[in-house]
Design goal:
The protein is built from one helix and 22 strands. The protein is mainly β and about 240 residues long. Strands 1, 2, 3 and 4 form a four-stranded antiparallel sheet that branches. The protein has a four-stranded antiparallel sheet with strand order 5-6-7-8, with no helix packed on it. A four-stranded antiparallel sheet has the order 9-10-11-12, with no helix packed on it. A hairpin with a 4-residue loop joins strand 10 and strand 11. The two termini are about 15 Å apart.
């Protein structure tokens, strides 16, 4: 979300693309999305698009198995020289210094934005237990937020230590849409203006704005308590 516009990537072979579309806010309870996007870029059929992030004057689009990062000028949308990497691409965000990539494991990779060379890696753990299946990423309020593949929750990660500091249990929202096991949570966007997270998932017909009104300290037990549903207020 940037300037009341969503920057969105979408996957699958022969269907992958990224686009920009404006949103209007006629009410505090719902938003209106213009069906016609401001811009759309369709990838070649051999690419499977994954995470996307807007960093400074560029848009970075990750691919899943093709080991390629598409780069675009954020103002003109001109395609620039792509970047290369080893491994898989799942989620992508940035911390104002590095691009941060997930690959479905318990590790996060910090890449130089100009070369995409790995500058450091971070192991994500919860009470010394490795947390894998890290997928979609967002950096907000000084923390890395990641959804876990096939789990309807988002974990809050300390970017220095990799420790999980808490989690958002989004099962109550997902259950309202859960008529297909493939409709998994897979979208997080921080809205600076509204100080909340937009969340969505694969084939979800809706997006939800989540505002964390209060947070409980993470338990030191092996079964930490998530932030309860009544401490989140969808708009």
């Amino acid at each position: 979300m940037h300037d009341d516009k969503f920057y969105e990537s979408s996957g699958l072979y022969n269907k992958s693309h990224w686009l920009i579309y404006p949103v209007e806010f006629p009410s505090t309870k719902w938003v209106q999305i213009t069906r016609k996007p401001d811009f759309i870029f369709k990838l070649h059929k051999r690419y499977f698009a994954e995470g996307l992030t807007l960093f400074k004057d560029k848009i970075y689009l990750l691919t899943w198995n093709e080991r390629k990062v598409f780069v675009f000028d954020s103002k003109t949308h001109e395609e620039l020289k792509p970047l290369r990497f080893s491994g898989e691409g799942w989620g992508l965000t940035h911390d104002n210094e590095y691009l941060i990539r997930s690959d479905g494991s318990h590790q996060l990779f910090f890449h130089h934005p100009d070369t995409f060379k790995v500058q450091k890696t971070l192991e994500v753990k919860d009470n010394n237990k490795k947390i894998d299946q890290l997928n979609e990423l967002e950096f907000a309020q000084g923390f890395i937020w990641a959804n876990l593949w096939y789990q309807h929750k988002i974990v809050k990660i300390d970017p220095q230590t990799g420790e999980v500091l808490g989690e958002l249990n989004l099962q109550p929202i997902a259950e309202t849409l859960f008529d297909n096991p493939e409709k998994v949570l897979n979208g997080i966007a921080w809205d600076e203006k509204r100080q909340g997270f937009w969340i969505t998932g694969k084939w979800w017909p809706k997006m939800f704005l989540i505002k964390i009104s209060s947070q409980q300290p993470k338990s030191n037990s092996s079964n930490p308590h998530p932030i309860p549903p009544n401490h989140r207020q969808p708009e």
